[in-house]
Amino acid sequence: MINMFKIGNLSASELREKYGTPLYVYDEVQIKNNISEYVDNFKSDLYKTEIIYASKAFSSLYMYKLVKENNIGVDVVSGGELYGVIKEKIDPTKIHFHGNNKSEAEMDMAIDYKVKNIIVDNFDELKLWAKKAPNIDYELNILLRINVGVSAHTHEYIITAHPDSKFGYYIENEDIFDSIKLIDATNNLNFYGFSTHIGSQIFDMKGFMLTIEKLFELMKKTNREIKHLCLGGGCGVRYTDSDKPLTLKEFSNILIDKVDAEIKKTGIKISELSIEPGRSLVANAGYQLYTINQMKKALNKTYYFIDGGMNDNIRPALYGAIYSVDIANKIDEEKTMEVSIAGKCCESGDVLFKDVKLPKAEAGDMLVVYTTGAYGYSMASNYNRLPRPAVVFVNGSNSKLAIKRETYEDLYKNDLD
Ligand SMILES: Cc1ncc(COP(=O)(O)O)c(C=O)c1O
């Protein structure tokens, strides 16, 4: 009987003993497998392909180091993410710099590091790059972020008939062509192609199919060479048994087949195709470990209280995200209780996992939460002045502290009295 949950070869209790809880744990082998599955399958004979990790899903210096070692690219959306990438000396030609409303300081930072691929969100942003162009001493590739009017989420996609998204150029708008003209007229700026991102946690590929068709129609309208197309992220992952995601191989093959088919149908060629997976590269490699300290029987509910909360994983409170959980030291025990797991925060919404089936718990038991590798730590906060947890990477029998647990001192280091 195996009664203790392990990540790699390390048991949850060994990890708690060494690093404490609450704790984020990544299985490095799973991250590498995810990367390989993308790299091996997102391939075509018709153009070069690139996997660009969307680091908003989880960023840390160690994660950027893995990105570099595995020779994939990285998507950053802020000066802070860019700073980490620069610290890890990631090849500037492998960076996609995204974001609406980039500050001039962020733009200058990108130029200093010779970031090669800039995803421009709107005409106003482009004018700023054009203003800076005389001081750019390399050829900077501009990809225009296109709102194709398709918005996809899990099992559904919707065609939004209006140009109202905060992100990108609406596909019907003339400013796309004005922007291409401005890029062409500006030394050191190189019109490179189009970039889209239609949503996240997507299982139904129809939205992608339509998006690819729309991008090819747009390319036809431009009547010129388009070197690069970027299809963004979006591949869904399994949080609970009701989620039935595609494998990364299936996801990759479907996209490649569609792009290849459009090339054959339209005769329009591209030199490069990229995707920017975030969630699907790291989510299933990530776990959270908590200690259950107290239990409470309310009128109709039993609560297990854990030593963290919405501050270290906001997704349940923010948009009702559902996770699978177990008691890590009672993995094989019968799940006789229906309980809700509540955190420490002073918010009634700080109930992370509602009405879940678990074994009867005692103080000191450990809760493991699965699939927390994406948009977990990266969205953590210090609400209630709670320190953010530590992050550990496990590789077989080895573990490595990647982000230290915050101390109370850390929490006040920027305060002045
Ligand atoms: C432009 C862009 N690319 C990639 C991603 C990553 O998406 P996902 O985590 O669903 O793969 C996002 C997520 O917001 C995005 O905005």
Overall description:
With 417 residues, the chain is α/β, with parallel strands linked by helices. It folds into two domains: 6-25 and 284-411, Lyase, Ornithine Decarboxylase, Chain A, domain 1 (Beta Barrel), CATH 2.40.37.10; 42-277, Alpha-Beta Barrel (TIM Barrel), CATH 3.20.20. It is built from twelve helices and 22 strands. The strands form four sheets. Strands 3, 15, 16, 17, 18, 19, 20, 21 and 22 form a nine-stranded mixed beta sheet that branches. The chain has an eight-stranded parallel β-barrel with strand order 4-5-6-7-8-12-13-14, surrounded by five helices. Helix 6 (123-132) runs parallel beside helix 7. The protein binds pyridoxal-5'-phosphate (PLP). Pyridoxal-5'-phosphate is lined by residues 54, 57, 75, 98, 197, 200, 232-235, 276-280, 374.
Describe the secondary structure blueprint for this structure.
Elements: E1 6-7, E2 10-11, H1 12-19, E3 23-27, H2 28-41, E4 48-54, H3 61-69, E5 73-76, H4 79-87, E6 95-97, H5 104-112, E7 117-120, H6 123-132, E8 140-147, E9 150-153, E10 156-159, E11 169-170, H7 175-184, E12 189-195, H8 206-222, E13 228-230, H9 248-266, E14 272-275, H10 279-282, E15 286-297, E16 302-306, H11 315-319, E17 325-327, E18 337-342, E19 351-358, E20 366-370, E21 390-395, E22 398-403, H12 408-411
Parallel strand pairs: 3-21, 4-5, 4-14, 5-6, 6-7, 7-8, 8-11, 8-12, 12-13, 13-14, 16-18
Antiparallel strand pairs: 1-2, 3-15, 9-10, 15-16, 15-20, 17-20, 18-19, 21-22
Bound molecules: pyridoxal-5'-phosphate.
